[in-house]
Structures are given as C-alpha cells and as structure tokens.
C-alpha cells in the first residue's frame, strides 16, 4: 500500500449538508464550492512551499559537497604540478614505509530517523487516531509482556534487523574459524608431501606426580607397571628363583624367608 506524502484538502468540493433555513440552495452550494476551491488553493500553495524548501535544502547540501570536492581536487592538482619525476626518486622501501591512505569522508548515519521525517508525514502522523489503551492490561499478563505491543510495536523492525545482523556476524566468525582450521590442515598435509621422511612428533603425556608417588609407595614386585608391563628380563627376578608368574603373596613370603636366611648365615636353596 503506497503512502501518500501530500494530500490536497478538501477533496470533495460540492459535498456537504446544507444548513436549515436556506432560501436559495443553489447560491449556498455555489458559495460553499468557491470556499472549498479557495481552501484547495491554500493547501496547494502550502505544499508547493514545502516542496521548494526541500529542493533548496537538497541543492544546498549538494553545493557543499561539490565545494569540498573541488577543494580536494585543487589541492591534488597543486601537489601533482609540484612533482618532478626526473629530479625526485622515490624508492620502493619508502613507499612501503608510508602509511596507507585513509579517507576522512564522514558517512551519513541515521538517515531514516524522526528528525528526517518530512513535514507532511509528521502532520499526517499527528492527525492519526491513537492506539487503544491496551497497556492497562499488562499487569494482568502472566508472561509480563507489554499488551500494547501485540497491537502495535514500533521497535519490531529494528529488533528484526538487529537479530539478522547478529546472526550474520556469528556466521562470519564461524566461517573464519573454519578457514583457519582448513588452512592449518592443508599446511600440515603440504609439509608431509614435501618431506615424507619427516618424523611426526608426538605430544608427550602430562606427568602426574600423585600417581607416581602412589606407585613408588608399593614394593617393587607389587607395582602396577611391573605386573602389567613386560620387562626384558621376563622370567627372572632379583633373587634368581622368583618369576613374575608367581603369586604376589608367595613371592613376598619367599623374599622374606630369603632375607632371614641370609641374616642367619644360611644360604637359600
């Protein structure tokens, strides 16, 4: 539905109820029609003044922009005429050391705001009927939402735009993370292709001091690593007659007996 910016009123010239006690109805209709025509001319002149005012403001802003652009062009022309390629030699290193060009042009912001609304639209807005007082029902809602927003919500389009912008920002962030992961994987694959004999380093497992101390608290025969991890001297022991296949309790008793016999000066069989 198009929004009419300017309306010329009154629209209907001859429509209207005649007052009571009129002797000449034709003369009354003619006079009311002429009065409506005069009102239309007044409305038309007011809209024409508003149109010419908007044109003046746009032309003034365009003139200011062109003036600033002409000043920049004049400054650039002076600098260009002062340069001499045969005398001044600029190295590539000096060019790279210079700062990159950064424009100082200020972009227009808040183009669509309450201050930029045309005067006819403002007048039309003030002539509109107010929304019903549904906000008095807000205290009785369980979800604590404003009841008037179900009828009219001026911030709906802003919230919708904000959600889309946040979603687009999140998608870009995820895409950057994916590109970083892909680049790291491709770099590692390229290194493996270039140097196939390269040794792939394995990450060393983190040491757990508490677990090491708990293992050291056991005797040598009762340690978990001695029972689970096969040693190169599998089938032999420090005493010569013990083997890892012997039950731990028996081995402990035999070791105890060997120690006692050694102290008593008797050799163990």
TrEMBL record:
An annotated GO BP: positive regulation of Arp2/3 complex-mediated actin nucleation
Localization per Swiss-Prot or TrEMBL: Cytoplasm, Cytoskeleton
GO (cellular component) term, any one: lamellipodium
Main location: cytoplasm
Molecular functions per Gene Ontology: actin binding; Arp2/3 complex binding; protein kinase A regulatory subunit binding
Region of interest (Disordered), ranges: 172-197
UniProt keyword terms in alphabetical order: Actin-binding, Cytoplasm, Cytoskeleton, Phosphoprotein
Membership in a protein family: Belongs to the SCAR/WAVE family.
Protein name: Wiskott-Aldrich syndrome protein family member
